[in-house]
């Protein structure tokens, strides 16, 4: 019998108007906050708490564009509908089947928490299928006015309980939420 029931955890940054990227997928507005010598916004603590990483194909390709694959020490699954082969990094597997079925299988197969990295369509699927237990959202003090939304028409109400709130000197605010309940569609 498993000792620990893993949680699906969501950790992401967004603009004040809830966009995770510009329309073209660019996150150039976030680079001002990279490599802050003062803090990593809780990332190291969070990253050490998870054992598996889940992301969509577009997010995977964007992470690859940054240079070295940063998640080689964790098992990563990339959800894709594409048939053509993608560049495969260390510890990466591609998944093209039913997201909900795969994630429910994965939760039964591991004792460690799972990080849902993104993107927007994958986040929507996870929330629609009640697969997320908690969210950690870092709000960046910028209004983009448009882009790829953090939550794109999920189609139901999700009740949250606010946990830890961290305010950083450069204006970023980290907020932890726990899912309290799921309303029917």
Can you describe this structure?
With 185 residues, the protein is of the alpha/beta class. It has a single domain, classed as Dihydrofolate Reductase, subunit A. Helix content is 19%, strand content 34%. It is built from 4 helices and 10 strands; from the N terminus they run E-E-H-E-H-E-E-H-E-H-E-E-E-E. It has helices at residues 43-48, 57-65, 99-109, 120-128; strands spanning 8-15, 19-21, 50-56, 75-79, 92-95, 113-118, 134-140, 148-149, 158-167, 173-182. An 8-stranded mixed β-sheet has the order 5-4-3-6-1-7-10-9. The longest helix is centred in the middle third of the chain and has 11 residues, at 99-109. The protein is globular. The model has no long low-confidence stretch (mean pLDDT 88). Pfam families: RibD_C. Its EC number is 1.5.1.3.
């Amino acid at each position: 019998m498993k000792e620990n029931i893993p949680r699906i955890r969501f950790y992401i940054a967004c603009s004040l108007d809830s966009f995770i990227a510009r329309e073209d997928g660019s996150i150039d507005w976030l680079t001002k906050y990279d490599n802050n010598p003062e803090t990593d916004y809780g990332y190291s603590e969070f990253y050490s708490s998870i054992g598996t990483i889940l992301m969509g194909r577009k997010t995977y390709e964007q992470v690859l564009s940054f240079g070295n694959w940063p998640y080689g020490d964790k098992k990563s699954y990339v959800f894709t509908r594409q048939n053509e082969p993608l560049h495969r990094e260390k510890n990466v597997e591609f998944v093209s089947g039913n997201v909900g079925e795969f994630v429910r299988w994965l939760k039964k197969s591991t004792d460690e928490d799972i990080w849902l990295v993104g993107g927007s369509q994958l986040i929507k699927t996870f929330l629609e299928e009640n697969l997320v237990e908690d969210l950690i959202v870092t709000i960046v003090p910028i209004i983009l006015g448009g882009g790829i939304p953090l939550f794109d028409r999920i189609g139901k109400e999700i009740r949250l309980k606010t946990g830890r709130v961290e305010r950083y000197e450069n204006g970023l605010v980290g907020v932890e939420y726990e899912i309290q309940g799921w309303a029917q569609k």
